[in-house]
Amino acid sequence: MEKGLLLLDGRIVAVVYFRAGYALTDYPSEAEWRARLLMEQSSAVKCPSIAYHLVGTKKIQQELAKPNVLERFLDNKEDIAKLRKSFAGLWSLDNEEIVKSAIEKPDLFVLKPQREGGGNNIYGHDLRDTLIKLQKEQGESLAAYILMQRIFPKASLTALVRDGDWFEDLTISELGIYGAYLRNKDKVILNNQSGYLMRTKVSSSNEGGVAAGFAVLDSMLLTDEVIITHKKSLFLNLDHLIT
């Protein structure tokens, strides 16, 4: 790296796009950590930067849910109240009272590791057994997870298509909003909403990743009314998606 420039085979790298680097297994040795540090310290545009990468972790979500934390970043009390209303309960495993409650009533909680993608969350009896094991181990293993209040959304009968075949089942949907964010040090150049992703899964499934095979891509139809289709009286209630 010369004067902040990131060079590859003598050519300047303008943008670093991280397709990998989100799991601990992507950093098996110090060489990978040094490479990440080199890229972060360069003048190349990082997508995402290490700061933006960390903001998306479950630990940061849990920290933002703590009292008085949102006030550090937002001034509008109305906006803060709206955001807090959307938060589920989030706790670190050093909260002994919450851990005790989760062991006694595991179906009311989800244990989430600091990992990307679907297929990693822990539920039910597995949650109880994992918490008991972590309590015995103590140490850094406790910091690898957070506890979240389990959400029980309303299910709707929906037609799903997979591998060219369709079927009906009770489903729940998850709406994610895309954002475009670009900054140069402390100067924000762009910070806009830029679309959405809707994932729909059968309500009996605990996981919801599309790439992991648990969910399908979907789209929204915003309405103030319940839609009733023809012969089979298929009810598609999207009230929970309307803001």
UniProtKB/TrEMBL annotation:
GO CC field: cytosol
Enzyme Commission number(s) from the entry: 6.3.2.3
Pathway: Sulfur metabolism; glutathione biosynthesis; glutathione from L-cysteine and L-glutamate: step 2/2
Binding partners and assembly: Homodimer.
MF terms in GO: ATP binding; glutathione binding; glutathione synthase activity; metal ion binding
Cofactor: Mg(2+)
Protein family according to the UniProt entry: Belongs to the eukaryotic GSH synthase family.
Superkingdom: Eukaryota
Source taxonomy: Eukaryota, Viridiplantae, Streptophyta, Embryophyta, Tracheophyta
Presence of keyword Nucleotide-binding: yes
Key words, A-Z: ATP-binding, Glutathione biosynthesis, Ligase, Magnesium, Metal-binding, Nucleotide-binding
Entry protein name: glutathione synthase
Cross-referenced InterPro entries: Glutathione_synthase, Glutathione_synthase_a-hlx, Glutathione_synthase_C_euk, GSH-S_sub-bd_sf
Any Pfam family the entry gives: GSH_synth_ATP
